[in-house]
């Protein structure tokens, strides 16, 4: 049955939910990881997220409906996603939020490169230009030198590449598994993967930290659900540009909460990366 129901208003409202969740996730992640190991935060996110997801699981037919024919696809996808999420959480504690999000927006660029290398997609002029602009944007933000590599920027780049691999893997999963099932297995598998690392660094959690951890779990669990629902009401070429608002919104939050100034390099690099994303969409229309 086709679940596509065109509605610009509904798509926009679901994207408001996505944007709010992702911007909140950046702040909550920074506050949580500033006091706890990212491994512990991610384990708590998986446990709390599974509880929060339970109503949707039962509404979708219960645990029996969560069975999948492709367990290994879920396992490999979530192993990569787990490492990428760890790198992202570390990055938000080391560099300005605007830099993290700007570099994260290179995901479509890395996805295009990986698709060419591993699944045989062809390059065209728009895709080549998108890749070039994205890479130039990254170089402007990072400005790498032999003796000055910013660890936070390297973590952010690693996260973007890891998320890109995850996106390619999940493309095959959405053909056979529902959004709820994919999120269910994400929480289960990443909870199992992270159990030992989290146990090795586990420490008591202060009362003032629990709200931040809860926000990480809520936003990490339901942000992707919001994006998926938005996609059921509008094409990707309409939905994805709405996500570009995340760059200025995150920069604004970073300035308001942490007094993070936006330098000309980050602003210029972000513009080039976003332009590359627009061109990358243009070649599919």
Q: Mean pLDDT, as a whole number?
A: 86
Beta strands, count: 0
Query: Which value, in Å, is the CA radius of gyration?
Result: 19 Å
Structural class: mainly alpha
Contiguous helical run count: 12
Q: Hey, roughly how much beta strand do the residues contain? A: under 5%
Number of domains: 1
Unreliable sequence segments: none
Q: What kind of sheet is the major sheet?
A: none
Summarize the helix and strand pattern as letters. HHHHHHHHHHHH
Task: Describe, in plain words, how this protein is organized in 3D.
By secondary structure, the protein is mostly helical. It has one domain (8-282). 76% of the residues lie in helices and 0% in strands. The chain is built from twelve helices and no strands. The longest helix is centred in the first third of the chain and has 26 residues, at 8-33. The mean pLDDT is 86.
Write the layout of secondary structure elements.
Layout: H1 8-33, H2 38-59, H3 71-94, H4 97-104, H5 107-118, H6 125-142, H7 151-173, H8 179-201, H9 210-231, H10 236-243, H11 246-258, H12 264-282
Helix pairs in contact: 1-3, 1-9, 1-11, 2-8, 2-9, 3-7, 3-8, 4-7, 4-11, 4-12, 5-6, 5-7, 6-12, 8-9
């Amino acid at each position: 049955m086709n679940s596509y129901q065109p509605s610009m208003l509904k798509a926009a409202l679901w994207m408001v939910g996505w944007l709010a969740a992702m911007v909140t996730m950046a702040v909550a992640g920074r506050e949580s990881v500033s006091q706890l190991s990212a491994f512990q935060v991610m384990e708590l996110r998986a446990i709390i997220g599974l509880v929060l997801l339970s109503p949707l699981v039962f509404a979708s037919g219960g645990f029996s409906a969560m069975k999948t024919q492709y367990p290994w696809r879920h396992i490999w996808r979530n192993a990569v996603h787990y490492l990428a999420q760890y790198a992202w959480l570390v990055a938000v504690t080391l560099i300005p939020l605007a830099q993290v999000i700007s570099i994260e927006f290179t995901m479509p660029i890395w996805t295009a490169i990986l698709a060419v290398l591993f699944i045989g997609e062809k390059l065209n002029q728009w895709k080549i230009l998108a890749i070039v602009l994205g890479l130039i944007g990254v170089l402007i933000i990072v400005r790498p030198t032999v003796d000055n590599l910013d660890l936070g920027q390297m973590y952010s780049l690693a996260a973007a590449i890891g998320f890109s691999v995850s996106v390619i893997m999940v493309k095959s999963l959405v053909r056979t598994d529902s959004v709820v099932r994919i999120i269910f297995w994400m929480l289960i598998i990443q909870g199992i993967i992270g159990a030992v690392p989290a146990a090795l660094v586990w420490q008591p959690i202060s009362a003032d930290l629990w709200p931040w951890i809860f926000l990480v779990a809520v936003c990490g669990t339901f942000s992707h659900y919001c994006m998926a629902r938005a996609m059921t009401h509008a094409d990707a070429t309409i939905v994805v540009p709405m996500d570009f608002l995340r760059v200025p919104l995150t920069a604004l939050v970073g300035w308001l909460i942490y007094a993070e100034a936006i330098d000309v390099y980050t602003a210029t690099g972000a513009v080039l990366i976003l332009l590359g994303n627009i061109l990358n969409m243009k070649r599919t229309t």
